[in-house]
Amino acid sequence: MDFKIEVNNSSVDVREGETLLTALRRQGIKVPTLCHMNRFSPTGACRLCVVEVEGKRDLITSCSFPVEKGMKVFTNTQRVIKARKLIVEMLLSNHPDDCLYCERNGNCELQWLADEMNVKERKFFAKKNPYFPDGSSTSVFRDPAKCVLCSRCVRICEETQLVTAIDFISRGNQIRVNSAFNKGLNVSSCINCGQCIMVCPTGALTDISHLEKVQAAMDKKKKEVIFFVSPSVTVSMAEHFGLKPDKDLNGLVCAALKKIGASKVFDLGLASDLNIQDEARLLAMRLKNGAKGPMFSSCCPGWVKYVEEFRPELIPSLAVSKSPQQIFGKLLKTWYTKQEKVLPDNIYSVAVMPCVGKKYEASREEMTHKGISEVDAVLTVRELMRMMRTNGIDVRNLEPMPFDEPFSGSSAAAWKLGYSGGKAEAIAMELFENMKASAKETFKFSQPKNLAGRKESKVTIGKNTYGFAWVSGIEKADSYINQLIAEGRDDIHYVEVMACLEGCAGGGGQPINRIPEKPRNRKKICQEMEKLNPWKIPAENPALEKLNRSLKNSPEQETPETYFHTHFQQRDVVK
After folding, report:
1. What is the model's pTM?
2. Residue 237 banded pLDDT, cuts 50, 70, 90
3. Of the CATH numbers 3.40.50.1000, 3.40.50.1780, 3.30.565.10, 3.30.830.10, which one belongs to the domain with range 216-564?
């Protein structure tokens, strides 16, 4: 039921049960916060969102206080502004003075708050936090000295990802966020999803950067530096620079990398097509052999690591296909080097991805060939944008350039891997193409059922109907798997799991912002790009057909398993 309250002497409509913060923001009234996150229950811990309510002696936290009939709220009194400013000044009292060198300089919420609260000098001097940075992880860099104890990272790691790799330790003025037993993140239960980075308001959590070593490799010119770019990356670039999907987005990113100094730039979408073909083939074999339970996707490194650490009983059900990144890395260091008659040691391969977990994936010992890493470096979207700024590249004023041969094209299905549910549909399409009894049969994916954040759909092939499901976020995935087991369901044959909400569109390597609509917008751009692609399934991609033919005719007669398959293992970590 709607009713009215008074805000700053004006009448506004509110909804029963909502918090004051929600009501105020809907009216366009900006209220600062540090601890608040959408979808999470409010804590009021940072107290920056305080407002004055007539009849209340103390200021109240608007994020946790529900609206009430007859309320008179004041958001901009001197008392409120002074309280907020004092909190920011206290946070700055022991914060490091290295903003100019910080990864989040210019995109730091504490910096923004200091500016908004008109903080012009240090009024309080507290002892600096004596905590050392933790760079032990392959993906996430932690600097506890910059932590403002907002609890966002702790909550998303525990509630959304079920991992609890970090938590509060000690008490009083010694309280801080740390990993279990004060060990490094590399031995913790961290799954390297990077969602903690995405919600951190300061530079306390950032990614392990490969930018300098990639730039050094290009400057030395001792090796051929080859970039391969995920379709998801071009979507994020389009969003960031305000480019329409009808632009040659791939061509612009390719041109930018060539300007920076890349020897060659390839389309990772071709490896996505290979991955789709291989997983569909594995699923068809599984169905033919009557295997029990669904097959789970394995291209998300965060999900794979979660299974290895927390659900090892699911390892036999993981698709043994390598991710597109690792398929491409293997092809580059084996098949491509033979074709070009160069040594693998003379190739420096760089993947550009929307995911920090891909840095971890590239470092796995299973992802090496004769002691040589299949992928030498992984850049996130953030790192790519920084590299462009450093090199003075303006994408909007570039002439598009085509990807280099022989990895120069992908089907529309490759774009589907950029968002949650896309891969499940791509696998269903490929399975249908492989198993349909007649050319007259047409592919039809049933209207997805939305089951509390998990979606299911069916596809009929001949006389058989197969179930596909997709879910993003580890908590939802774990809950869904438990539900499948508890109900003894056998009508779901394939489950796509992405560790990050909305899949790669909300990946831990994407640009950092607090706008929840961004991942959904990226999904829409992916779908627009799908429509523009004339090749709807991998089988229609001429570049893929040519590559498959070459692989079959190679003198070594290597099987698909040589290039496309890997294995997984149970991992014991500090929990």
Report:
1. 0.93
2. confident
3. 3.40.50.1780
